[in-house]
Amino acid sequence: MIGAWMFLRFGRLFSGSIVALAGLTSPACAQQETTDGADALRRGDYQTAIDALARAASQPQAAASDYRLLARALSKVGRYDEAEEAVRGGMERVTDPEELHNTLGELLDLRGRVDESGSAFREAMASAASDRNVAALNLAVLQYRQGEVDAAMAAFNGFIDLYNETPDLPPHDLVAVGTALRYLGQRDYRLVHDARRALDEAIAADPSALDARIRLGELFLEKYNGPEARRLFKEVLEVNPNHPAALLGMAKVLDFESQPGAVTSARKSLEVNPSFVPSRVFMARMSLNVEDYAQAIEEAEGALEVNPRSLEALSVLAAARYLKGDEEGFAKTRDRALEINPRYAELFNIAAELLVQSRRYHEGVDLARQAVHVDEDSWRAYAILGTNQLRIGEIQEGRLSLETSFSGDPFNLWTKNTLDLLDTFEHYEIIRTPHFEIMLRADEVELLAPYFSAVSEEAYQRMTERYGYEPTVPIRVEVFPNHSDFSVRTLGLPGLGALGVAFGPVIAMDSPSARGVGEFNWGSTLWHEIAHVVHLGMTDHRMPRWLGEGLAVFEERKAREGWGSDVGLPFLMAYESGRLLPFSQLNNGFVRPSYPQQVAFSYLQASLVLELIEERNGFPAILDMLAGYRQGRSTDEIVRAVLGTDVEEVDELFDDYLRKRFAGPLAAIYGFPEAPAGRGANQLSRAVDKDDFLANLAAGKQLTDEGRAEEAIPFLERAKELFPEYAAPDSPYWYLATIYTEKGDEERAAAELEALTSLNETHYAANLRLASLRQATGNVAGAAAALERALYIHPYEIPVHERLADLYAQMADWVSAVQERRSALALEPVDRAGALYRLARAHFEAGDRAAARRAVLQTLEIAPNFQEAQELLLQLRQAGGK
Amino acid sequence: MRLLLTLCLVALPAWPAAAQQTHLVVIGGLGGDPAYSDTFHNWAVELVDAAVDRHGLSPENVVFLGEQPQRDPARIDERSSRENIERILVDLAGRAAPGDVVFVVVIGHGSSIGDEARINLPGPDMGPSDFAPLLDRFTGQSVVFVNTASASGAFLAPLSAANRTIVTATKTSRERNETVFGGFFIEALAGEGADTDKDGRVSVLEAFHFARQEVAREYEADNRMLTEHAILDDNGDGEGSEEPDGRKTDGVLARSLFLDSGSPVAAIAAGSQAGDSVLGRLYREKGQLEGRIQQLRGQKESLDPELYERELEALLVDLALKSQEIRRREGGQP
Question: Do B297 and A861 touch (CB under 8 A)?
């Protein structure tokens, strides 16, 4: 038990110190306090640990290890000053003060007091202290951080000898060896494996060791192995759920794997230790990810208050200032960091990465070049440089940078994937149009090049006219038949859910063959990405995500009827349940979504915001907003200046707009759809509230399924009336079209499908069926229009091209007919001779006799006795066609 | 400049003799599941009907052995048991004339243990070693053996022989997944889409190419990995070709084999028999032109493209004019 008098007595010795709070106990009890304190420290019960270890340290016979443990416990909760005081006090009291020099050095280092910490490490190294090797490592790391790389590397190298020459190294020395090898791995990647081995040995030597696991986890994460890192941090957290470094490590793993919870974990580490600089830096980066520059600066400055020489904190502060447009602030912070370490490439790497996250690829490349300039061994810098050179269209330069990076860091999966992808580029061809370079895989060129060229040029012409801005040309469009390749081109990894991406002058996207029929509309996707090119160029890549994505969808809608996301049931339900973000927070829906559908909803919502702005303030307001972002103004400023209001009022305006625009459907949605299972159509139809959209739809579907089409019609018509924008695959339009077709009412069936396809951009079957209906009623142009829409969804069916060619022929549009005959041929039909003959005939009708002759000769080369082709050949001969 | 080849005599393709007959034996195996039974039955019916209705085979020359004869007694002759198959083939070997063409088309599920493959039948299954002695009986006939089943690749090498065309839906016995080749092969023979040389007839080679391409297209459209690779052997070397070119590798024989029994040679003979020597001469000249075109195509890679095109055009124009003349002579439209 601790007596009050003891507190007073020791108060004289260590006035105001943590040890003074403890009291004397018997030697046996003191030993127990040490054990209890160490146990509590290990399991993260830091206050208990501090109390017990303070009592142990207060004993006359206290050992240096008691003080070391106490300092460690105090530093775990950020009480660095008290920890230093305890160590210094201990050095005066114990018989083996040399055992505390390294610990003192580590504490000083945490505060950026590098001169003092260096001295402390040197004193430890000069002694026979048990942790003198750890001190040597710490000194080398210190040197490394200050840019004395050669000296540091020489010191790290010494650890190889230490390992080879010393059998049975204690665990803490094995951790030191592993850490040294991790640094040496920067110059010789093979040593990374040795680093892992040393750390594994440290864990094997002391299975309860937490620090070795932390180091190993960090090594795995550094080498892009999230699952292994996660396993190690998890093991630590199972023992000690309050371990700041493990909590941060887990946060980094979650961020690395794009899993939720990263911020929560990092925040928890700061709850344990508010002065934990790496976590402050991490939080600053997280704030930058969501473009909250003020918060990022506050976090970074908080970290620098603890350690004014923290290069990581300076880097993130510099980046925040850069992103905020404070070039002077950036330069000052940069200079401050480079003064500490002139070779600190990470300063530029971090800023480059963050700029790239904000889609400022050119500036990212410039910064990565500076990173390479200050440290030619920064493989990360080469990787960032290469990846982003590729994004701005510098393909050869990008490849070289990535190859350099991979030569030094062959663990980088992103680099490897990207280099592997670049190897496949030899199978692609570049098609040049006046404003585009379209890269298509060779086996897709014949089919896709004409369509992609036409859509690209049309989009360019229409948008440059509307916006009065011409982007830098040529715009490169890379089209990947394999979605994984598109994903690697975009992120370096497979698994991206998107369909296309624009990096500025470079677009990458899925080919229509990359996805199943009806999964996407390649035409609207391409249009969307070209819109990004225009808007990114207009704002010098300085627009927020909500504006970029919203405008791109907004432009899709202007391009073709039915293109662009449509307002569906889930969106309106999210709105009704308050899950849509207000305009003022809309950007978070893109950069920090809180539920899976939020990104998709945010695209749609942003486009509707822009429709509101266009309706309220006119299209020129949108141009003014873009100009404002180019000037580096904030959304608040722009909204005030351009819209004459503030963001809070826009929140209200938008809410009002949505509520009015979708008043009908909102009033007709009573709740989440319930499956009508177990309820017969009779029961269902009787129970239907005439104003309930879902109930009417369900009854109509059920009656249709039961073959009672006549009875289904009123319900389906009512559902359509209640929610005319509903164009999902089970929309009333589809069911009604089916019913009217069966009834032989082709005009009404066609009208339903016309309405459906004017809302739904991916309904392939509806377009084909509509084409047949239009054709049957002699509406050739309508049939052709439906098939043209179908080709934007799935251009791989020969009969569709042949049908469309026939329709064009009926319309005497022979140029288009030639195109469709060519497309059919590009799909390698079994009946190649037939396809060639039809192409020859189209050429002939189009008046291109030379092309007709070539095609008919190709036809007859395959099928010499093809009578119709023979006749065409003779006809051409008679006409003198050559 | 004209090419030397214009001076060459060209051999006509090996058309079957005019008096030849074509025989078709369709074997429908066990479905195991109603859906498969339906599919196999429908394929077999489509083939049998096309043979008679479209290709003009005498119903006596068509035998349909099915899993369940009671399902379609008008078409199914007998149950597809091993015993019946053996009896039918032995009988056919006894009555087929030299020069006849014998088609044996197997539809069903295949299985394999190691390299030993079987076709699943009602009762005992049959493997290549069971069919080999039966096919060996057709010494004077051209035999076309088509196995559309899974794992059928293992049938090719043991059954390969001179004057025999073997087609299997899979390359090896390890391709054991359900196959779709059979449906497309039969569609090719029953329809018009496979007549790629526009001569109004579908050869075994054309049917093979059609089915192979459509199989690939179907797998691609479904975004599935291709698990069946059909092969054809007709040069007796026991090595199947996935892409027989009809010239250098396999396909030379298969391009001259048709389910029907008509042929240009038959027309020549018919013309001669009708006492129209002019028509006979026109056909012979037409045949020579076709041969020269074929020979020119064989030299395409080694010729200057412009020269090739000029020569080809000249021959094609001659052929077109010759065909017009024939049609006029035969009383049709020019």
Answer: yes
A824 neighbourhood in chain B, CB within 8 Å: none
The count of C-alpha atoms lying within 13 angstroms of the C-alpha of A802, restricted to the half-sphere facing its C-beta, is 15
Least confident of A461-470, A492-501, B174-183, B307-316: A492-501
Could you give the CA distance from residue A251 to residue A279 in angstroms, rounded to a whole number?
9
CA A844 – CA A394 distance, rounded (Å): 44
CB half-sphere exposure, A128, CA atoms < 13 A: 1
Please check whether residue A81 touches B, CB under 8 A. no
Closest CA to B286 of B270, B299, B268: B268
On chain A, the residues whose CB falls within 8 A of the CB of B197 are 833, 862-866
Q: Do B198 and A863 touch (CB under 8 A)?
A: yes
φ/ψ (deg, to 5) at A512: -60, -20
Residue B267 · residue B283 · CB < 8 Å: yes
Q: Using CB atoms, which residue from A831, A834, A867 is nearest to B323? A: A867
pTM (two decimals): 0.82
Q: Does A339 touch chain B (CB under 8 A)?
A: no
Distance of CA A663 to the CA centre of its chain: 35
What is the spatial distance between Cα A155 and Cα A145, in angstroms, rounded to a whole number? 13
Interface of A with B in 765-804 (CB under 8 A): 796
ipTM of the prediction? 0.74
Partners of B195 on chain A (C-beta within 8 Å) are: 831
Q: Which residues pair with B64 in a beta bridge?
A: B26
- B309 inside 8 A of chain A by CB: yes
* A798-809 confidence digits (pLDDT tens): 999 999 999 999
In sequence order, the 6+-apart residues with CB closer than 8 A to the CB of A736 are: A713, A716, A717, A720, A748, A749, A752
Average pLDDT of chain A to the nearest whole number: 91
Distances (CA, A) of B154 to A125, A440, A824, B136, B245: 75, 40, 36, 18, 22
Percentage, residues of chain A above pLDDT 70: 94
Q: Determine the 3-state secondary structure of B143 from DSSP.
A: strand
CB count within 10 Å of CB A705 equals 12
pLDDT in tens, A12-56: 233 345 554 444 456 666 688 889 999 999 999 999 999 999 999
Nearest CB neighbour to A857, from listed B194, B195, B313: B313
Asked if A828 is an interface residue toward chain B (Cβ–Cβ < 8 A), one would say yes
A875 contact partners, CB below 8 Å, separation of at least 6: A844
> Which tokens belong to A140?
């080398």
| SS3 readout for A464-496 | HHHHCCCCCCCEEEEEECCHHHHHHHHHCCCCC
Average pLDDT, chain B: 87
d(CA A322, CA A352): 10
Q: B245 — contact with chain A (CB < 8 Å)?
A: no
Question: Does the beta carbon of B213 lie under 8 angstroms from any beta carbon of chain A?
Answer: yes
The C-alpha atoms of residue A701 and residue A712 are separated, in whole angstroms, by 7
Sequential DSSP letters for B6-75: GGS--PPP-PPPTT--EEEEEEE---SSHHHHHHHHHHHHHHHHIIIIIT---GGGEEEEES-GGG-TTT
> Among all residues of chain A, which has the CA nearest to that of B211?
A830
Q: Using CA atoms, how far apart are residues A799 and A768, in angstroms rounded to an integer? A: 11
Query: Is B319 within 8 Å of A864 when comparing Cβ atoms?
Result: yes
DSSP state of B4: G
**Residues contacting A108, CB < 8 A, separation 6+:** A84, A114, A116, A117, A120
The count of C-alpha atoms lying within 13 angstroms of the C-alpha of B62, restricted to the half-sphere facing its C-beta, is 22
Q: Which residues contact A164 (CB under 8 A, 6 or more apart)?
A: none
Distance from CA of A756 to the nearest CA of B (A): 25
Please give the Cα distance from A591 to A599 (Å, whole number).
Answer: 8
Among A511, A793, A797, A831, the strongest candidate for a mutation testing the B interface, having the largest count of B CBs within 10 A, is A831
